[in-house]
Design brief:
With 123 residues, the protein is mainly α. It contains five helices and two strands. Helix 4 (88-99) crosses helix 5. Residues 67-77 have a biased composition (Polar residues).
Length: 123
């Protein structure tokens, strides 16, 4: 599927390209044609090297992509369990731990308690 390029001097990005497009449009220079199917087939040939088609290439590829570090397949390595209590006091303790000793605006224990009772942050 060969297609002829139809240059447009108005779309040229440089002056050289604009002059070439004008020359082609006036017939002073040959129009370029592109065979997309042939170019695609040629690109497929270059996408895999000759060594990759052999057993030696397969071994080299496996070695190049092998992991450098061992990983564990065991799911028993780390176990985290969060026990549900549903106790609002636990949340109060967490809020105090997060707030620490830094002053974070006008937040008091009463304000936190009201927010917990309403179930949403204060405005």
């Amino acid at each position: 599927m060969s297609e002829t390029i139809k240059p447009d001097a108005n779309q040229a990005s440089t002056q050289d390209a604009q002059l070439a497009a004008e020359s082609m449009a006036e017939g002073r220079e040959k129009m370029q044609s592109v065979d997309f199917d042939a170019d695609y087939a040629a690109a497929q040939q270059f996408s895999v090297s000759d060594i990759d088609r052999t057993d030696e290439g397969e071994k080299a590829a496996a070695e190049a992509t092998a992991p450098n570090f061992q990983t564990s397949n065991s799911s028993n390595d780390t176990k985290l369990e969060a026990k549900e209590t549903g106790d609002p006091n636990d949340y109060m303790d967490m809020a105090k731990d997060v707030a620490g000793t830094e002053a974070v605006g006008n937040v008091s224990d009463d304000l936190i308690q009201k927010a917990l009772e309403k179930g949403q942050p204060g405005k």
